[in-house]
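Predict the holo structure. Ligand: dicarbonimidic diamide.
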Amino acid sequence: MSVHVVAARPFAFRFETRHTALIVIDMQRDFIEAGGFGESLGNDVSRLQAIVPTVKSLLFACREAGMLVIHTREGHRSDLADCPPAKRDRGSPKLRIGEAGPMGRLLVVGEPGQAIVPELLPLPGEMVIDKPGKGAFYATALGAILKAHAITHLIFAGVTTEVCVQTTMREANDRGFECLLIEDATESYFPDFKAATIAMIIAQGGIVGSSAALSELTLALSAEPVVA
Ligand code: C5J
């Protein structure tokens, strides 16, 4: 067994690349670019744009290490049958989910705004999971896909930290996966929420998982694996 060890908080994340997947959550134009769903809710999207280069470096590192890479996209059927009023009617956005904006219908599968930003496009063969909820396990094949690939460890990045990233990480932890959040490869429209989410994840000895900077992961990948 060749194990890499990341100096994560509050405990070291020990993983084998063949049993580990990178999950990049919702790095979509609708959250990151002007004119999308995130901006329609009144958010400043520039905070999310700022992490794109770090997520790109993370993707490069995990691809180079031969890890399974999975991308998720939040999105709904064009008839919105999978978008309940409890989701669609929230807040006072300029445009609601399903309404037409400059990048097409907001958060509808296949519309230009629902796509992953061009800098982070999946490579041929990488899986893309469209999810109607905040958690990536809800109403998707993610659990079955991870089982089929014998994945036991997950590395998380993407947006937003306290909504879809945290929800998915909690779902994963409940399903028995060891979870690591790459803290400079995730972002929120609200800096306090990002900090609070990381604090909640790693509190109580790492109740949901552990957290590390990308540099700590790349250092672990460049070091000789420990033979256990
Ligand atoms: C939100 C997400 N924030 N991907 N979605 O509605 O975090």
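The chain has a mean pLDDT of 97. The first helix runs from residue 29 to 32.
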